[in-house]
Amino acid sequence: MREHGGNLDQAVQRFGGRMQDWIDLSTGINRQPYPVGEIEPHFWNALPSRSDLESLHEAARQAYATKAPILAMGGAQAAIQLLPRLAPCGRARVLAPTYNEYAVVLSAAGWDVAEVASLDALARADLAVAVNPNNPDGRRYDKAELLALLPRVGRLVIDESFADAMPELSLAAEAGRPGLLTLRSFGKFYGLAGLRLGFVLGAEGDIAALSAMAGPWPVSGAAIAVGGRALRDRDWARATATRLEADCLRLDAAVKSQGWSLVGGTPLFRLYETGDGRAAQARLAGARIWSRIFEQRPGWLRLGLPGDESEWARLAEALSR
Q1: Domain count, the chain
Q2: Confidence bin at 268 (pLDDT 50/70/90)
Q3: In what order do the strands lie in the sheet with 297-304?
Q4: Parent domain of 292
Q5: What gap in Å lies between CA 17 and CA 40, rounded to an integer?
Q6: Structural Rg of the chain based on CA atoms
Q7: Per-residue pLDDT band at 1 (split at 50, 70, 90)
Q8: Which of 215, 232, 249 is the C-terminal boundary of a domain?
Q9: What is the pLDDT of residue 313?
Q10: pLDDT tier for residue 158 given thresholds of 50, 70 and 90
Q11: Nearest to 266 by CA among 135, 101, 76
Q12: In the listed set 232, 251, 273, which residue is the last one of a domain according to the structure?
Protein backbone atom coordinates (compact mmCIF):
# COMPACT_ATOMS: atom_id res chain seq x y z
CA MET A 1 0.00 0.00 0.00
CA ARG A 2 1.26 3.46 -0.92
CA GLU A 3 2.14 6.01 1.73
CA HIS A 4 -1.02 7.74 2.96
CA GLY A 5 -2.32 9.54 6.00
CA GLY A 6 -4.73 7.72 8.26
CA ASN A 7 -2.23 4.93 8.96
CA LEU A 8 -2.89 5.04 12.68
CA ASP A 9 -2.09 1.36 13.07
CA GLN A 10 1.52 2.18 12.19
CA ALA A 11 1.57 4.88 14.84
CA VAL A 12 0.41 2.40 17.47
CA GLN A 13 2.95 -0.16 16.32
CA ARG A 14 5.83 2.32 16.49
CA PHE A 15 4.90 4.44 19.50
CA GLY A 16 2.48 2.36 21.52
CA GLY A 17 -0.87 3.09 23.07
CA ARG A 18 -4.29 2.07 21.83
CA MET A 19 -6.03 3.38 18.71
CA GLN A 20 -8.50 5.29 20.85
CA ASP A 21 -5.65 7.08 22.68
CA TRP A 22 -4.58 8.89 19.53
CA ILE A 23 -5.68 12.06 17.77
CA ASP A 24 -5.24 11.39 14.07
CA LEU A 25 -4.18 14.61 12.32
CA SER A 26 -2.40 12.75 9.53
CA THR A 27 -5.31 13.19 7.12
CA GLY A 28 -7.33 16.08 5.75
CA ILE A 29 -10.55 14.70 7.21
CA ASN A 30 -12.78 17.09 9.14
CA ARG A 31 -12.71 16.06 12.81
CA GLN A 32 -16.07 17.69 13.48
CA PRO A 33 -18.13 15.49 11.17
CA TYR A 34 -21.61 15.95 9.87
CA PRO A 35 -24.15 14.49 12.34
CA VAL A 36 -25.31 11.31 10.66
CA GLY A 37 -28.63 10.92 12.48
CA GLU A 38 -30.92 7.93 11.99
CA ILE A 39 -31.02 5.96 8.77
CA GLU A 40 -34.31 4.50 7.60
CA PRO A 41 -34.25 0.68 7.69
CA HIS A 42 -34.79 0.23 3.96
CA PHE A 43 -31.41 1.83 3.22
CA TRP A 44 -29.85 -1.05 5.16
CA ASN A 45 -32.21 -3.85 4.17
CA ALA A 46 -32.78 -3.35 0.45
CA LEU A 47 -30.51 -3.00 -2.55
CA PRO A 48 -30.09 0.67 -3.48
CA SER A 49 -32.73 1.69 -6.00
CA ARG A 50 -32.10 3.76 -9.10
CA SER A 51 -34.48 6.43 -7.81
CA ASP A 52 -32.58 6.68 -4.50
CA LEU A 53 -29.28 6.94 -6.37
CA GLU A 54 -30.63 9.63 -8.68
CA SER A 55 -31.87 11.56 -5.63
CA LEU A 56 -28.30 11.50 -4.31
CA HIS A 57 -27.00 12.64 -7.69
CA GLU A 58 -29.40 15.58 -7.69
CA ALA A 59 -28.32 16.57 -4.17
CA ALA A 60 -24.70 16.53 -5.34
CA ARG A 61 -25.51 18.62 -8.41
CA GLN A 62 -27.13 21.26 -6.22
CA ALA A 63 -24.27 21.23 -3.71
CA TYR A 64 -21.64 21.53 -6.45
CA ALA A 65 -23.65 24.06 -8.50
CA THR A 66 -23.64 22.03 -11.70
CA LYS A 67 -26.02 20.48 -14.17
CA ALA A 68 -23.46 18.01 -15.49
CA PRO A 69 -23.92 14.25 -15.62
CA ILE A 70 -22.68 12.77 -12.36
CA LEU A 71 -21.94 9.38 -10.84
CA ALA A 72 -21.64 8.49 -7.16
CA MET A 73 -18.81 6.08 -6.40
CA GLY A 74 -17.08 4.51 -3.40
CA GLY A 75 -14.92 7.57 -2.78
CA ALA A 76 -12.88 9.54 -5.30
CA GLN A 77 -10.40 6.66 -5.17
CA ALA A 78 -12.91 4.36 -6.86
CA ALA A 79 -13.04 6.74 -9.82
CA ILE A 80 -9.24 6.91 -9.97
CA GLN A 81 -9.10 3.13 -10.24
CA LEU A 82 -11.31 3.22 -13.34
CA LEU A 83 -9.67 6.14 -15.14
CA PRO A 84 -7.12 4.00 -17.04
CA ARG A 85 -9.96 2.07 -18.67
CA LEU A 86 -11.69 5.08 -20.21
CA ALA A 87 -9.35 5.11 -23.21
CA PRO A 88 -6.57 3.03 -24.78
CA CYS A 89 -3.24 3.38 -23.01
CA GLY A 90 -1.25 6.44 -24.04
CA ARG A 91 0.66 9.35 -22.51
CA ALA A 92 -0.45 10.30 -19.00
CA ARG A 93 0.93 13.39 -17.29
CA VAL A 94 0.32 14.19 -13.62
CA LEU A 95 0.99 17.62 -12.11
CA ALA A 96 3.21 16.84 -9.12
CA PRO A 97 4.00 16.54 -6.29
CA THR A 98 0.47 15.45 -5.53
CA TYR A 99 -1.73 12.56 -4.41
CA ASN A 100 0.37 9.52 -5.13
CA GLU A 101 -2.30 7.11 -6.42
CA TYR A 102 -2.65 8.63 -9.89
CA ALA A 103 0.81 7.79 -11.22
CA VAL A 104 0.81 4.30 -9.69
CA VAL A 105 -2.67 3.32 -10.90
CA LEU A 106 -2.09 4.58 -14.44
CA SER A 107 1.35 3.03 -14.70
CA ALA A 108 0.06 -0.34 -13.47
CA ALA A 109 -2.55 -0.26 -16.24
CA GLY A 110 0.09 0.23 -18.92
CA TRP A 111 0.04 3.98 -19.43
CA ASP A 112 3.22 5.93 -20.15
CA VAL A 113 3.21 8.08 -17.01
CA ALA A 114 5.35 11.07 -16.09
CA GLU A 115 5.00 13.55 -13.26
CA VAL A 116 5.47 17.16 -14.36
CA ALA A 117 5.92 20.46 -12.57
CA SER A 118 3.82 22.92 -14.60
CA LEU A 119 0.45 23.20 -16.28
CA ASP A 120 2.09 23.72 -19.67
CA ALA A 121 3.87 20.38 -19.32
CA LEU A 122 0.47 18.65 -19.27
CA ALA A 123 -0.12 19.65 -22.90
CA ARG A 124 -0.23 16.89 -25.53
CA ALA A 125 -1.02 14.24 -22.93
CA ASP A 126 -3.74 11.74 -23.70
CA LEU A 127 -4.69 11.97 -20.02
CA ALA A 128 -3.72 14.94 -17.86
CA VAL A 129 -4.29 15.15 -14.09
CA ALA A 130 -4.28 18.19 -11.80
CA VAL A 131 -5.42 18.33 -8.17
CA ASN A 132 -7.01 21.66 -7.24
CA PRO A 133 -6.43 22.67 -4.49
CA ASN A 134 -3.43 20.41 -4.44
CA ASN A 135 -2.59 17.77 -1.87
CA PRO A 136 -0.29 18.13 0.05
CA ASP A 137 0.88 21.71 -0.57
CA GLY A 138 -2.44 23.45 -1.22
CA ARG A 139 -1.43 24.96 -4.56
CA ARG A 140 -4.34 26.55 -6.40
CA TYR A 141 -4.76 26.77 -10.15
CA ASP A 142 -6.68 29.37 -12.09
CA LYS A 143 -9.86 27.99 -13.64
CA ALA A 144 -9.27 29.72 -16.96
CA GLU A 145 -5.77 28.25 -17.23
CA LEU A 146 -7.10 24.78 -16.53
CA LEU A 147 -9.87 25.12 -19.11
CA ALA A 148 -7.33 26.37 -21.66
CA LEU A 149 -5.72 22.93 -21.46
CA LEU A 150 -8.80 21.15 -22.78
CA PRO A 151 -8.02 21.55 -26.52
CA ARG A 152 -4.42 20.50 -25.83
CA VAL A 153 -5.06 17.17 -24.08
CA GLY A 154 -7.11 14.08 -24.77
CA ARG A 155 -8.82 14.09 -21.40
CA LEU A 156 -8.35 16.42 -18.42
CA VAL A 157 -8.99 15.15 -14.88
CA ILE A 158 -9.38 17.77 -12.15
CA ASP A 159 -9.39 16.32 -8.65
CA GLU A 160 -11.33 18.65 -6.34
CA SER A 161 -11.29 16.43 -3.26
CA PHE A 162 -10.45 19.41 -1.02
CA ALA A 163 -12.54 22.05 -2.81
CA ASP A 164 -15.74 21.97 -0.72
CA ALA A 165 -14.66 24.89 1.44
CA MET A 166 -13.24 26.70 -1.61
CA PRO A 167 -16.06 26.58 -4.20
CA GLU A 168 -14.56 29.46 -6.14
CA LEU A 169 -11.89 27.03 -7.42
CA SER A 170 -14.33 24.45 -8.72
CA LEU A 171 -14.82 23.55 -12.38
CA ALA A 172 -17.92 21.51 -11.55
CA ALA A 173 -20.11 23.92 -13.51
CA GLU A 174 -18.01 23.21 -16.61
CA ALA A 175 -17.94 19.45 -16.15
CA GLY A 176 -20.25 18.68 -19.06
CA ARG A 177 -17.56 19.73 -21.55
CA PRO A 178 -16.12 16.90 -23.64
CA GLY A 179 -12.84 15.64 -22.25
CA LEU A 180 -13.24 17.19 -18.78
CA LEU A 181 -13.71 15.04 -15.68
CA THR A 182 -14.07 16.50 -12.19
CA LEU A 183 -13.66 14.33 -9.09
CA ARG A 184 -15.19 15.23 -5.74
CA SER A 185 -14.66 13.58 -2.37
CA PHE A 186 -17.50 13.54 0.15
CA GLY A 187 -15.79 12.08 3.20
CA LYS A 188 -13.13 14.73 3.78
CA PHE A 189 -15.18 17.91 4.21
CA TYR A 190 -18.09 16.09 5.83
CA GLY A 191 -15.75 14.12 8.10
CA LEU A 192 -17.25 10.76 7.11
CA ALA A 193 -14.44 9.06 5.19
CA GLY A 194 -15.62 5.63 6.37
CA LEU A 195 -18.82 6.07 4.38
CA ARG A 196 -16.74 5.73 1.17
CA LEU A 197 -18.55 8.19 -1.04
CA GLY A 198 -17.35 10.43 -3.83
CA PHE A 199 -18.51 11.70 -7.21
CA VAL A 200 -17.23 12.05 -10.72
CA LEU A 201 -18.73 14.70 -13.01
CA GLY A 202 -18.21 14.77 -16.75
CA ALA A 203 -19.58 14.54 -20.24
CA GLU A 204 -22.43 12.11 -20.80
CA GLY A 205 -20.31 9.52 -22.63
CA ASP A 206 -17.62 9.38 -19.96
CA ILE A 207 -20.13 9.11 -17.12
CA ALA A 208 -22.00 6.36 -18.96
CA ALA A 209 -18.75 4.43 -19.46
CA LEU A 210 -17.77 4.80 -15.81
CA SER A 211 -21.26 3.77 -14.71
CA ALA A 212 -21.05 0.62 -16.81
CA MET A 213 -17.69 -0.24 -15.26
CA ALA A 214 -18.87 0.53 -11.71
CA GLY A 215 -21.85 -1.79 -11.97
CA PRO A 216 -25.47 -1.49 -10.83
CA TRP A 217 -24.80 -0.62 -7.15
CA PRO A 218 -21.80 1.72 -7.06
CA VAL A 219 -22.48 2.95 -3.50
CA SER A 220 -24.30 1.59 -0.45
CA GLY A 221 -27.75 2.48 0.77
CA ALA A 222 -26.23 4.09 3.85
CA ALA A 223 -24.03 6.28 1.65
CA ILE A 224 -27.08 7.36 -0.32
CA ALA A 225 -29.06 8.22 2.81
CA VAL A 226 -26.33 10.07 4.69
CA GLY A 227 -24.75 11.64 1.63
CA GLY A 228 -27.98 13.07 0.31
CA ARG A 229 -28.94 14.48 3.71
CA ALA A 230 -25.55 16.11 4.23
CA LEU A 231 -25.25 17.56 0.73
CA ARG A 232 -28.65 19.24 1.05
CA ASP A 233 -27.69 20.86 4.36
CA ARG A 234 -26.12 24.02 2.97
CA ASP A 235 -26.34 25.85 6.31
CA TRP A 236 -24.04 23.24 7.87
CA ALA A 237 -21.68 23.48 4.92
CA ARG A 238 -21.42 27.27 5.11
CA ALA A 239 -20.90 27.26 8.89
CA THR A 240 -18.26 24.53 8.58
CA ALA A 241 -16.34 26.37 5.87
CA THR A 242 -16.27 29.48 8.08
CA ARG A 243 -15.07 27.50 11.10
CA LEU A 244 -12.36 25.73 9.10
CA GLU A 245 -11.02 29.03 7.79
CA ALA A 246 -10.65 30.33 11.34
CA ASP A 247 -9.13 27.07 12.56
CA CYS A 248 -6.44 27.23 9.87
CA LEU A 249 -5.27 30.55 11.26
CA ARG A 250 -5.45 29.11 14.78
CA LEU A 251 -3.24 26.17 13.83
CA ASP A 252 -0.72 28.39 12.03
CA ALA A 253 -0.47 30.52 15.16
CA ALA A 254 -0.13 27.46 17.41
CA VAL A 255 2.96 26.15 15.59
CA LYS A 256 4.69 29.52 15.23
CA SER A 257 6.74 28.96 18.37
CA GLN A 258 8.30 25.89 16.77
CA GLY A 259 9.92 27.93 14.02
CA TRP A 260 8.02 25.98 11.38
CA SER A 261 7.19 27.81 8.16
CA LEU A 262 3.94 27.38 6.28
CA VAL A 263 4.41 25.72 2.89
CA GLY A 264 0.72 25.82 2.08
CA GLY A 265 -2.53 24.06 2.74
CA THR A 266 -6.29 24.00 2.38
CA PRO A 267 -9.08 24.60 4.91
CA LEU A 268 -8.69 20.95 5.94
CA PHE A 269 -4.92 20.63 6.41
CA ARG A 270 -1.71 22.64 6.72
CA LEU A 271 1.74 21.75 5.43
CA TYR A 272 4.80 23.00 7.30
CA GLU A 273 8.53 23.00 6.69
CA THR A 274 9.97 21.84 10.00
CA GLY A 275 13.60 21.13 9.09
CA ASP A 276 13.17 17.52 10.23
CA GLY A 277 9.72 16.10 9.64
CA ARG A 278 10.49 12.72 11.15
CA ALA A 279 11.69 14.28 14.41
CA ALA A 280 8.64 16.58 14.54
CA GLN A 281 6.34 13.62 13.94
CA ALA A 282 8.00 11.60 16.71
CA ARG A 283 7.70 14.50 19.12
CA LEU A 284 3.97 14.83 18.52
CA ALA A 285 3.60 11.06 18.64
CA GLY A 286 4.90 11.17 22.20
CA ALA A 287 1.64 12.96 23.02
CA ARG A 288 -0.33 10.46 20.92
CA ILE A 289 -0.91 12.93 18.08
CA TRP A 290 -0.30 11.48 14.64
CA SER A 291 0.85 13.56 11.67
CA ARG A 292 1.93 12.95 8.08
CA ILE A 293 5.50 13.04 6.79
CA PHE A 294 6.86 12.64 3.27
CA GLU A 295 9.86 10.54 2.35
CA GLN A 296 10.67 12.70 -0.68
CA ARG A 297 10.44 15.94 1.34
CA PRO A 298 12.18 15.18 4.67
CA GLY A 299 11.40 18.57 6.21
CA TRP A 300 7.68 18.52 5.52
CA LEU A 301 5.01 17.78 8.12
CA ARG A 302 1.29 17.88 7.35
CA LEU A 303 -1.29 18.44 10.07
CA GLY A 304 -5.03 18.20 9.85
CA LEU A 305 -7.11 20.48 12.04
CA PRO A 306 -7.96 19.37 15.58
CA GLY A 307 -11.63 18.84 16.34
CA ASP A 308 -12.98 19.83 19.75
CA GLU A 309 -11.30 21.99 22.39
CA SER A 310 -9.78 18.99 24.14
CA GLU A 311 -7.87 18.13 20.98
CA TRP A 312 -6.65 21.70 20.59
CA ALA A 313 -5.48 21.63 24.22
CA ARG A 314 -3.57 18.39 23.72
CA LEU A 315 -1.87 19.79 20.65
CA ALA A 316 -0.90 22.98 22.48
CA GLU A 317 0.55 20.92 25.34
CA ALA A 318 2.53 18.74 22.94
CA LEU A 319 3.97 21.80 21.20
CA SER A 320 4.94 23.41 24.50
CA ARG A 321 7.10 20.48 25.60
Answers
A1: 2
A2: very high
A3: 261-266, 269-273, 297-304, 292-294
A4: 8-33+235-320
A5: 37
A6: 20
A7: low
A8: 232
A9: 98
A10: very high
A11: 135
A12: 232
